[in-house]
UniProtKB/TrEMBL annotation:
The keyword NAD applies. Keywords: NAD, Oxidoreductase. Residues 105-283 form the D-isomer specific 2-hydroxyacid dehydrogenase NAD-binding domain. Residues 2-314 form the D-isomer specific 2-hydroxyacid dehydrogenase catalytic domain. This is D-glycerate dehydrogenase. One of its GO terms (cellular component) is cytosol. InterPro entries: D-isomer_2-hydroxyacid_DH, D-isomer_2_OHA_DH_cat_dom, D-isomer_DH_CS, D-isomer_DH_NAD-bd, NAD(P)-bd_dom_sf. CDD domains: GDH.
Length: 316
C-alpha cells in the first residue's frame, strides 16, 4: 500500500514482488482513512505526513512486515512501537542530501540578497533605478555559519558555505569525525556559544523530544541582532511564534524557512516580513531526488517482502 502518488519507477519495483495499491488523492490521508486503507497490507510506502504508530500497525494486521518512509526524517513514526511489533521501518538517507543542502543555501542567499523582496518589487511594477544604496543586502564571505547537527546534510551545507568563503562552527550531540572537522575546518562549540557567535545558524538535526523548540525565545535572545536562522529540517525545532516575534522586533536579522511548525499552515506574522525567505517544504523537491527517494523506499519494501535485509533500516 502506497499512501500517496509516487513516481511510476517506484511502483514498478513494488509490482515485481506484490500487488500494489496506490492512494492517489491530492491531499494527505486522514488518520481514519490511513487506518482503513492499510488493512491487510504486507508492506506500506508512507509519507512524512502519515502518522505511523501502534494503532496503525493494529489496523494493518499481523501480516504487516515493513513500513518504508519516503523521507530521511522519521519523526512521524513511533519507531519503538512499530519495530516492537516486529515491523521493519526504513527511511531514505543519502539520496536527498545535496538537494536539501542546495535549497538551504538558496534560501540563505534569498534572504541575504533580498531576492524574494526584489522579485515582489518588480512584479508589482514599481518603478526603480540602479543606485549605490538600492536594496542592499549582506555578504556571506568571512561570516560564520553555525551548524546544528553536522550529519550528512549539515556537512553538505558546510561544503557549500566554504565555497562562499564562510567559517564553519557546529554543535550537536556528538563530535564529527576528525577527517570531517579537518576537511571543513569546522570548530565544535557548545550550543550556547554557537548561538552567540554565529552570523548564520542552520538547523540539520532530527526532530526529537530533545530538539523540539531548540530555537526558543532564550535561544533567539542569545543570537546576534544580525543573525539569520535557516531551517530546512523540521518546523517544530523552532518555536515559530517566538521566531516571528524576534524577527518583528528586530532582535535577529532574518530567517530562511522551508519547514513550519504546523504544516501546511505558516504563522501569519512571518508572511508579513520582508526579512524572511520561505518555501513550502521543498528541500528534496527535485525530480532526480524524489525519484531516488521513492525507488529506495520501494526497494526497501521489496527486500523485506522477499526475505532479504532492508537497505536503509531505522533503528532506535
Ligand atoms: C523531508 O523532509 C525528509 O525528511 O526527507
Ligand atoms: C554592476 O553591475 C557593476 O558593473 O559593478
Amino acid at each position: 500500500m502506497v499512501t500517496r502518488t509516487v513516481p511510476e519507477s517506484a511502483v514498478a519495483v513494488l509490482r515485481e514482488v506484490a500487488e500494489v495499491q496506490v492512494c492517489d488523492q491530492d491531499r494527505p490521508l486522514t488518520a481514519d482513512e490511513l487506518r482503513a486503507a492499510v488493512g491487510g497490507a504486507d508492506g506500506v510506502v508512507a509519507m512524512l505526513h502519515d502518522r505511523i504508530d501502534a494503532e496503525f500497525v493494529e489496523a494493518a494486521g499481523p501480516q504487516l512486515e515493513v513500513v518504508a518512509n519516503v523521507a530521511v526524517g522519521f519523526d512521524n513514526i513511533d519507531v519503538p512501537a512499530v519495530t516492537g511489533r516486529g515491523v521493519t521501518v526504513t527511511n531514505t538517507p543519502g539520496v536527498l542530501t545535496d538537494a536539501t543542502a542546495d535549497l538551504a543555501f538558496g534560501l540563505l542567499l534569498s534572504v541575504t540578497r533580498r531576492l524574494g523582496e526584489a522579485e515582489r518589487l518588480l512584479r508589482s511594477r514599481t518603478p526603480w533605478n540602479f543606485h549605490l544604496g538600492f536594496m542592499l543586502g549582506t555578504g556571506l564571505q568571512g561570516k560564520t555559519l553555525g551548524i546544528v547537527g553536522l550529519g550528512g546534510i549539515g556537512q553538505a551545507v558546510a561544503r557549500r558555505a566554504r565555497a562562499f568563503g564562510m567559517h564553519i562552527t557546529y554543535t550537536g550531540r556528538r563530535r564529527a569525525a576528525q577527517e570531517v572537522e579537518a576537511e571543513l575546518e569546522a570548530r565544535y562549540l557548545p550550543q550556547d556559544e554557537l548561538l552567540r557567535t554565529a552570523d548564520v545558524i542552520s538547523l540539520h538535526c532530527p526532530l526529537t523530544e530533545s530538539t523540539r523548540h531548540l530555537i526558543d525565545d532564550a535561544a533567539l535572545d542569545a543570537m546576534k541582532s544580525t543573525a539569520i536562522v535557516v531551517n530546512t529540517s523540521r518546523g517544530p525545532i523552532v518555536d515559530e511564534k517566538a521566531l516571528a516575534a524576534a524577527l518583528e522586533g528586530g532582535r535577529i536579522g532574518g530567517a530562511a524557512l522551508d519547514v513550519f511548525e504546523n504544516e501546511p499552515d505558516v504563522d501569519p506574522g512571518l508572511l508579513e516580513l520582508d526579512n524572511v525567505a520561505i518555501a513550502p517544504h521543498l528541500g528534496s523537491a527535485t525530480t532526480e531526488t524524489r525519484t531516488a527517494m521513492a525507488e529506495l523506499a520501494a526497494r526497501n519494501v521489496a527486500a523485506v517482502l522477499t526475505g532479504q535485509q532492508p537497505l536503509t533500516p531505522v533503528t532506535t
